[in-house]
């Protein structure tokens, strides 16, 4: 009986040892199926930017508007996207005839002229048709926006007076340029003996406003 129990105990020990020697099944022995990538949600394409400006009809029209924009940036009285209300508030306390140029909020119109009239501030659309500028309701048209402004500044009725500049104190070089243009005329600037730097500066804004 004792011998039988001893044999049983030896068999149990051998079985346990054999069990310890058996390698445990590895989790990597049967590779899992690769996870299927989730499809990315479709991102809607951004809508094209909207603008109230109409498209240019020709390259010449594009050049003329680009030139007008460059002159406006140099003039000092272009107020960009200023609203009608904002323009009228700035002009309300100014003398009659004071004016500024700003972007128009109307479709198919690039710029607007806001001016202090005797009855109060008002705004007039500046139309650009067939390559020429004219005020809303007027038949007089001009190749250049600033020729239009000079015309109404010098007109007998003097619809326009002094522009409302964003900087009240103008640099001395701007005042000198304006005086030279008024003295010799825009058409004679090329005859003045100037170095290239001064010549470029004079031609960058050859107007008396």
Automatic annotation (TrEMBL):
Pathway listed for it is: Protein modification; protein ubiquitination
Family matches, as Pfam families: SH2 (PF00017), SOCS_box (PF07525)
What protein is this chain from? Suppressor of cytokine signaling 1
Keyword vocabulary terms for this entry: Cytoplasmic vesicle, Growth regulation, Nucleus, SH2 domain, Signal transduction inhibitor, Ubl conjugation pathway
List residues of the SOCS box domain: 159-208
Q: Which GO terms describe its cellular component?
A: cytoplasmic vesicle; nucleoplasm; phosphatidylinositol 3-kinase complex
Instruction: Name the gene that codes for it.
Output: SOCS1
Please provide the Gene Ontology terms (biological process) for this protein: cell surface receptor signaling pathway via JAK-STAT; cellular response to amino acid stimulus; cytokine-mediated signaling pathway; fat cell differentiation; intracellular signal transduction; macrophage differentiation; negative regulation of CD8-positive, alpha-beta T cell differentiation; negative regulation of insulin receptor signaling pathway
Q: Tell me, what does this protein do in biology?
A: Essential negative regulator of type I and type II interferon (IFN) signaling, as well as that of other cytokines, including IL2, IL4, IL6 and leukemia inhibitory factor (LIF). Downregulates cytokine signaling by inhibiting the JAK/STAT signaling pathway. Acts by binding to JAK proteins and to IFNGR1 and inhibiting their kinase activity. In vitro, suppresses Tec protein-tyrosine activity. Regulates IFN-gamma (IFNG)-mediated sensory neuron survival.
